[in-house]
Predict the structure.
Amino acid sequence: MLALYYAPGACSMAAHIVLEESGEPYEPRRMDLAKGDQRAEAYLKIHPLGRVPALILDGGEPLIENTAILPYLGKRFGLWPTEALAEARALSRVGFLATNVHPAHAHISRPERYATDASHFPDIQAQGRTTFHTLLKQIDGMLAGREWLSDRYSVLDPYAFTFYVWGIRRELPMGELKHYTAHRDRMLARPAVQRVVADEQVKA
Ligand SMILES: N[C@@H](CCC(=O)N[C@@H](CS)C(=O)NCC(=O)O)C(=O)O
């Protein structure tokens, strides 16, 4: 059985939604990032960077990084395109979300990763906020005239939904992003998403 290390409101919410959608039994292992669960010695053996998500595979091997976890779960549960070019496009979007959108937000939430002098933090956070907002607008553009980020519902959608939730958390004007907001609404209509939103207690 799969197990997922996740934390409420973290980027692990994407994999959490996918597992919840799958209908397959899995073990949710909740972490408290504020308490520092991610830095416990035992967890660092699973994820040496001390981050969530970490997926424990059926044989016990850990799989880390959303760029690996989400395509793996997508293929396992039929939430990933199979045609070569469609798959390449989906990978492009996973890469965009993981390596551009997520780090932009990390400049807001974890400025200490980017400078040792705390007097630089406000500048780092302000720039991160501007970049994060710009990238959310790009996601809005990607969703223009379509229901889902790929040709049909896929693991990309819970991942994009997670960043919408972060936009709300940062009090960005998310309502102005009409296509992305309609996507949020479609996500919230899904029972699995409702269960995860309730479990993680996020404002969506
Ligand atoms: N590149 C990683 C990023 C994982 C990551 O940064 N996770 C955050 C939560 S969204 C975390 O665990 N942070 C804990 C910390 O910074 O102490 C991925 O996409 O899986």
